[in-house]
Amino acid sequence: ERLNSAAGQARESYNMCGITAYLGSKEAAEILLGGLARLEYRGYDSAGIAICNKGKMSVKKKVGKVKELKSIASTVEGNIGIGHTRWATHGEPNERNAHPHLSSDSGFALVHNGIIENFIPLRESLMRKGYKFVSETDTEVLVKLIEDVMKSTGLSLEEAVRQALSQVVGAYGICICSRDDPDILIAARLGSPLILGIGEQEWFVASDASAFLEYTRHVVHLNDGEMVVIRRNVGYQVSTTQGTTLNPAIVELEGTLDQIEKGGFKHFMLKEIMEQPVALENCMRGRVKLHPSAPPSPRGDEDPEILPKFSGPHINLGGIEQLVGPPDNQFTLLQRLQSAKRIIICACGTSWHAGLVGEYMLESLCKIPVEIEYASEFRYRSVVLRPDEDIVMVISQSGETADTLAALRHAKQAGCLVIGICNTVGSTIARETDGGIYLHAGPEIGVASTKAFTAQVLVLAMLALRIAQGRTIPDDEYKMLVKELSKLPSRITKILSENEAKICEIAKVYRYAHHCLFLGRGYNYPVALEGALKMKEISYIHAEGYPAAEMKHGPIALIDNLMPVVFIAMQDSIYDKVKSNIMEVRARKGCVIAITDEGNTELESLCEYVIHIPKVSECVSPILTVVPLQLLSYHIAVMRGCDVDMPRNLAKSVTTE
User: Fold this and answer.
1) Residues 400-440 pLDDT 10s
2) What is the spatial distance between Cα 213 and Cα 438, in angstroms, rounded to a whole number?
3) Per-residue pLDDT tens over the stretch 253-285
4) Using N-to-C axis directions, what is the helix angle for 475-510 and 622-639, rounded to 10°?
5) Pairing mode, if any, of strands 417-422 and 390-396?
6) CA 119, 122, 127, 128: dihedral to nearest 10 degrees?
7) I want to staple 531 with a disulfide (CB 3.0 to 4.6 A). Which of 93, 150, 409, 518 is the partner?
């Protein structure tokens, strides 16, 4: 009950910070600093490491970037240690508040992601006992609490950690090393992700496997309420924080080191924009099939009734076609989706925009009512959930987004079937949902999401078509759309190769803009929202996305000759309406940039700039129309001198609530 309250119900609070730890025979400093550098995308304002060696605890901290910490910490010797990048929640960014934090006698050091919600009464209690605090953080309270338990009970460090954690309320991912026992690492999680990496007589702990991927791909994902104790020359033992021994599975990660390096690109964001053709190919591999084949039956036989459906182009999504449920009442997730009375999509940020496209697709193609909810609001509203009729779908690139996890758990507690769409294999969302679909887009390091968005929309398109197949759309339309999906990678390659020079030219003209509007209708209204978000995130230009028709209900008052207005104006069912909206902007001397189909010359005289992209079906168009907007935001941000991969105040793996 306490675990559910802290991690899921009361206040889901994951920190953006990064943790890395090492125990083995190599020099820990190099491994810890390298790991912290790979966790920089998570967002942080200070960094530090602690290394045990020959009865001494060496702690180095720096405000700013990991490279500044490296200048003072790279020569510290020892083969066990912990590291941390901090994103301030309690106390301003300074060296006193930076992690690791030490016990009073410097006997052990601790790093912590998350928030201890009852730190104020704990701190007051400890101060009455005579403990002194040098920082403003909740983390130091946890350190002194563990120390107090050891002193008052005589327990070992391991047992004192268990006892102390039973007294805290909130979320945490912690790792501890000891000066007096330099052969032990202790880590525990409740709400904040931690992964154990297993090498040859060496072990790693991190909040993200990218921190140690160059050393091992064999991992154990810790679940909420679990703890791992690693001992040199002995190995590791996972247990609950109450002491029950566990035997979790070892998983081999699919990623490679090359995938988390820049590969010659100036920024991760540019690399990931350019990777989108490959990312979408990987997303469709084994799923989008252009030639006749029959999917394996969940029951191990062949159903002659479904064979005709797979006589041509088709989609096979194994993640929703496996049997679930008790032996006497088994069903596939696909069957539940097809019979659902309502689908509720919960997500945040860019994933919410993808979910909004998904709402349009599912309602149009599948004729199922869909609601899209901000995950951060979902559990705080009195949403009426009907477990027998509703399916909740959660979308998250990382699979660790705090608000989305909280929405997932809220839906599960209400008895709803929950399906997940995420990119990170083995993530918490992947483990806690009833089933789902991986993006297989590869690691996304840049804070501003690009290839994950297009992959999410692609997955939602495949899902909608699979649900609709043979039910709610004609077979020829279904096959035509499947073929269109298969052509998306080559069409994105064409957009990237033919438009970047023009987009750079546009960026030079509008890089000094203070405000910007993005307008679209139908399927491309969510793209307008996403384009505006990208501009805000990385260039710090105030940008807003609207349905184009809503412009005259307020935003039109902002338009003048200094206001760039970006229209997504594909020649679809509402093209004439969008063209009228463009004329309204031109009448007020607004500066218009339009995204439209190849061969459409009607907009040349109405717009300062027109970007042409391949013509596709209306429901598939968001996967293409968003690409020029990604490039435009990227080039404007670079020209403004912004840190594209690590925008101020943002982090990749969101976040505190």
Assistant:
1) 898 999 999 999 999 999 999 999 888 899 999 999 999 99
2) 20
3) 876 666 777 778 899 999 999 999 999 999 999
4) 10
5) parallel
6) 150
7) 518
Q: What percent of the chain has pLDDT over 70?
A: 92
The residue among 402, 414, 335, 356 whose CA lies nearest residue 547 is: 356
Which of 62, 451, 536, 652 is catalytic? The answer is: 652
Give, as one character, the DSSP assignment of residue 412. Answer: H
Mean pLDDT score of the chain: 90
d(CA 493, CA 296): 33
- DSSP label of 400: -
How many whole angstroms separate alpha carbon 394 and alpha carbon 400?
Answer: 11
Q: Is the pLDDT of residue 605 over 50?
A: yes
Q: Judge whether 536 counts as a catalytic residue.
A: no
Tally of CA atoms within 13 A in the half-sphere of 43 that contains its CB: 19
3-state secondary structure 585-617: HHCCCCEEEEEEECCCCCCCCCCCEEEEECCCC
Q: Please list the residues that pair with 188 across neighbouring strands.
A: 174, 227
Per the structure block, which two tokens stand in for 422? 């995420």
Count Cα neighbours of 78 within 13 Å in the Cβ-side half-sphere: 27
Residue 39 tokens, joined? 């966790």
The tokens describing 354, both together, are: 């993808």
Please tell me whether residue 237 adopts helix, strand or coil conformation.
Answer: strand
Residues with Cβ within 8 Å of 111's Cβ and at least 6 positions away in sequence, in order, are: 19, 21, 48, 50, 82, 83, 84, 99, 100, 101, 139, 174, 175
Strand-pair partners of 178: 108
56 three-state secondary structure: strand
Indicate which residue of 17, 422, 591, 607 is catalytic.
Answer: 17
How many C-beta neighbours within 10 Å does residue 94 have?
14
Structure tokens at 302: 């062949």
Q: Which residues contact 651 (CB under 8 A, 6 or more apart)?
A: 16, 41, 42, 43, 44, 87, 447
Q: Which residue has the higher pLDDT, 484 or 87?
A: 484
Distance CA 419, CA 322 (A): 13
pLDDT tens, position by position, 151-198:
999 999 999 999 999 999 988 999 999 999 999 999 999 988 899 999
How many residues are given for the chain? Answer: 657
Q: Could you tell me where the beta strands, DSSP code E, fall in 68-194?
A: 80-86, 101-102, 108-116, 170-178, 184-190
Integer angstrom CA distances of residue 355 from 344, 359, 371, 472: 10, 6, 9, 21
Residue type, 191: G
Helices 451-468 and 622-639: angle between axes, nearest 10 degrees: 170
The two three-digit tokens of residue 28, written as one number: 């820990």
The pLDDT-based confidence of 9 (bands split at 50, 70, 90) is very low
Residue 329's pLDDT band, with cuts at 50, 70 and 90, is confident
CA distances in angstroms from 69 to 15, 44, 58, 369, listed in the order given: 21, 13, 13, 53
Q: What is the DSSP letter of 392?
A: E
Which pLDDT does position 1 carry in this prediction?
A: 30
pLDDT band at 293 (very low <50, low <70, confident <90, very high): low
> Annotated catalytic, 652?
yes
Backbone phi, psi, residue 57, to 5°: -105, 115
Count of Cβ atoms closer than 10 Å to residue 153 Cβ: 11
Lowest mean pLDDT among 114-123, 383-392, 511-520, 642-651: 642-651
Confidence at 15, pLDDT banded by 50, 70, 90: very low
